[in-house]
């Protein structure tokens, strides 16, 4: 389903700045325009994570939104698992995958956490801010399935990733707790790209320092950290 923001006429935008062949995206609001034409304000970080994955490797895009990173990774020849629990964002993600005629992007409607179950997702829909599991006032809400990465890999629903992107608005600690077995595996991910949201993490009652504790304890080293507003962009590499 396509929902157009009042005052906007839907169009298709071509983005050439990361992949020279260009990638196509539907745009129907100012929020989508920012995410596409302005790279969500994260052009360098996006380029770093897409260039980290090689053809034939597996890429996890956890918090895939409209698929900007997932599509660029798939264009490089990666097998992509794109996790997006919000149905409007997920619908747009599917449309963008089809628009680019990609056949190895697997879209999953799960919120990633430390256990399987269900939770409330707070969202403004595809034309608003990113959805979050953190309690939020003044936003809509829907129920979403929760899965842990360890559980889904153990059941064979997922294959082991080579590179992971994690951007889930404060649920980073919970997701990493649910990846401990994956991070300790002999074929563990080579690199992880995290957008860490300390204020949102605290809304879950978690400690932002646990991100570093989990990854360092699993034998990963921090190779880059940059601040962006109240967020941190971090790149971790298996030692």
Name some characteristics of this structure.
alpha/beta, 7-stranded mixed beta sheet, 239 residues, 29% helix, Rossmann fold, 3-stranded mixed beta sheet
Question: Overview of this structure, please?
Answer:
The protein has 239 residues and is an alpha/beta fold. It has a single domain (41-238), classed as Vaccinia Virus protein VP39 (Rossmann fold), CATH 3.40.50.150. Helices cover 29% and strands 28% of the residues. The chain is built from 9 helices and 12 strands. It has helices spanning 30-37, 43-51, 68-75, 87-99, 149-154, 172-177, 180-184, 198-203, 209-217; strands at residues 11-15, 23-27, 58-62, 79-83, 105-108, 111-112, 117-123, 140-147, 163-166, 191-196, 220-228, 231-238. Strands 5-4-3-9-10-12-11 form a 7-stranded mixed β-sheet, with helices on both faces. A hairpin with a 7-residue loop joins strand 1 (11-15) and strand 2. Helix 2 (43-51) runs parallel beside helix 3. The longest helix is centred in the middle third of the chain and has 13 residues, at 87-99. The protein is globular.
Low-confidence stretches: none
Please give the largest β-sheet. 7 strands, mixed
CATH architecture: 3-Layer(aba) Sandwich
Strand elements, count: 12
- Secondary structural class: alpha/beta
Give a short overview.
The protein is α/β, with parallel strands linked by helices and 239 residues long. The protein contains nine helices and twelve strands.
